[in-house]
Every structure is written in C-alpha cells, then in structure tokens.
Write a structure and sequence with these properties.
With 134 residues, this protein is mainly β. The protein has three helices and nine strands, in the order E-H-E-E-E-H-E-H-E-E-E-E. A hairpin with a 5-residue loop joins strand 7 and strand 8.
C-alpha cells in the first residue's frame, strides 16, 4: 500500500534513477556504454533493471568523491529526482530540511543539463536533475 503523495521537490518532480558506487563498471556489468565526466570526477553507465534506471558510478581518479563511498562500503549513493526548475525545487525541498551541498553544474551524462546535490540527514543524498521540458 502506498502512502500519501508529497511534493518535497516541487510540482512535476519525478524519480529518475538510483546511483550505485562501483569500483569498476566493466567488472560489475560488462558491455555498458561508459560516460566520463571530469566535472564530477566520475565515469558512469546506465542500465535498466525492473523498469527503473540504475546509474553505476565509478571513480575517475584518486580525488573522486565516490572513493569515500567505496572505502566506507556505501554502494547506494543517491537517488535522482528530475525537476523542471532547480531553483524552485531547491526552495521546495528546503522546507523539508534539504540543504544544498553543491552549486548547479552541467553533467556530461545528461547532455550538459544542470544538476544540483542536496542532503537531508534522514533521506540522505539526492541529485536534482533539471529538465525544462517537464
């Protein structure tokens, strides 16, 4: 049974993907198209599992933020919410104690659309992905 619908991230926000940290994309799932993102210091690849998108995230260099997750044994890194406007989403989720931990930046994996990272102590890390076509 599902609970009530809440608009934590603003109107028209929708689930986009789960981000999973891996040491090696090839060792995890061979044959995927890898996308190197030097802005985020990661290499990523996407696959569909049970009609949901999973982003495999591999560190790109020693300074990659994903290295800390792997050292701590944290595999489920984040969930991503697609929103029509980052500023509106940021204002909406602030009411639920989400705080920005980055500035909006373009993401290579998403055709240079902007992403913004927010954190909540109970929910964890959330990636907001802007899609002005929503």
């Amino acid at each position: 049974m599902m609970g009530p619908s809440v608009e934590i991230f603003g109107p028209r926000a929708r689930f986009h993907h789960l981000g999973i940290a891996v040491q090696s994309i090839d060792a995890t799932q061979a044959g995927l198209v890898k996308i190197e993102d030097s802005i985020q210091s990661v290499t990523v690849a996407f696959l569909e599992v049970a009609n949901q998108t999973i982003e495999l995230i591999e560190p790109l260099g020693n300074d990659s933020p994903i290295n800390q997750n792997l050292k701590k044994g944290i595999r489920l890194v984040h969930f991503c919410i697609e929103v029509p406007n980052l500023e509106i989403a940021l204002n909406a989720c602030a009411k639920s104690n989400f705080h920005p931990i980055s500035r909006a930046e373009p993401a290579v994996a998403f055709e240079m659309r902007k992403i913004l990272w927010v954190m909540n102590q109970k929910f964890g890390l959330v990636e907001l992905l802007e899609n002005k076509n929503l």
